[in-house]
Amino acid sequence: MPKRVDHDQRRRHIAGALLRIAEQRGLQHASMREVAAAAEVSVRLVQYYFHTKDELLLASLGYLAEELGARVARRIAALGSPPTPRDVVSGTLTAILPTDPESVRLTRTYAAFYSLVLAEPDLTRHGAPHPDLLERLLAHQLRAAQQAGAAHAELDPGLTAAGLLALTNGLGSSVLGGQRDAEAALRILTYHLDRLFVPSAGHTPP
Amino acid sequence: MPKRVDHDQRRRHIAGALLRIAEQRGLQHASMREVAAAAEVSVRLVQYYFHTKDELLLASLGYLAEELGARVARRIAALGSPPTPRDVVSGTLTAILPTDPESVRLTRTYAAFYSLVLAEPDLTRHGAPHPDLLERLLAHQLRAAQQAGAAHAELDPGLTAAGLLALTNGLGSSVLGGQRDAEAALRILTYHLDRLFVPSAGHTPP
DNA sequence: GGTTTCATGATACGACCGTATCAGAAAAGT
DNA sequence: ACTTTTCTGATACGGTCGTATCATGAAACC
Question: Does the CB of B43 sit below 7 A from strand D?
Answer without folding.
Answer: yes
